[in-house]
Specification:
The chain is 74% helix and 0% strand. The protein is mainly α. It is built from nine helices and no strands.
Length: 186
């Protein structure tokens, strides 16, 4: 998974497809009109893949006007807001979903990504651990937790470097972890 501070649109698209199935089922059970938003993740995926995030936002907003309680539409809207880096609004969406569907790891995973992007690594770690308690096999949360641990390691070595020079072994490890966290070339 890409670095939490720079989620790639492809990652958001694959996450949307997987989560739409889970949240669509939850919305259907609640009578929130999952059928009305059944194609929303696909439409938004296509728009994001084409670099048309503003249109994806319009489409997700339209879906919310039609069915404001639809969990799937709300999640998709939150992902689009994340892509647009409107993090406070995205956080609101995901926090409400996490409150209403506490058993689902997906909203918690995205909350954690937003915390990590804001530099709140300890909060991100705790949130990812909560997501994994809900679903120990949730691959995205597990991968994101691994990256947050790497980011915490970098922060610890940087703190150590501020109080004195790192020994060569520590410096090599720090640079290796930084390389792991560097965004992949596309």
């Amino acid at each position: 998974m890409p670095h939490p501070t720079a989620p790639a649109p492809a990652t958001a698209r694959s996450r949307l497809a997987r989560i739409a199935r889970r949240l669509g089922a939850a919305a259907w059970l609640l009578g929130a009109g999952a059928l009305a938003a059944a194609s929303l993740p696909d439409e938004v995926n296509t728009l994001l893949a084409a670099g048309r995030a503003a249109e994806a936002l319009q489409r997700s907003e339209q879906a919310l006007l039609v069915s404001p309680r639809d969990a799937q539409a709300r999640f998709v809207h939150g992902v689009v807001l994340m892509e647009l880096r409107r993090d406070a609004e995205a956080m609101e969406q995901f926090e409400r979903l996490a409150q209403e569907f506490p058993e689902l790891p997906e909203p918690l995973n995205n909350i954690a990504l937003l915390h990590a992007r804001a530099g709140r690594l300890d909060t991100a770690r705790l949130t990812l651990e909560s997501a994994l308690r809900n679903d120990p096999g949730h691959r995205a949360a597990r991968a994101n937790l691994a990256e947050v641990h790497l980011m915490l390691a970098v922060a610890a070595w940087e703190q150590l470097a501020r109080v004195g020079p790192l020994d060569p072994r520590q410096s090599r490890r720090l640079e290796a972890v930084r390389a792991l966290l560097a965004p992949a070339a596309r």
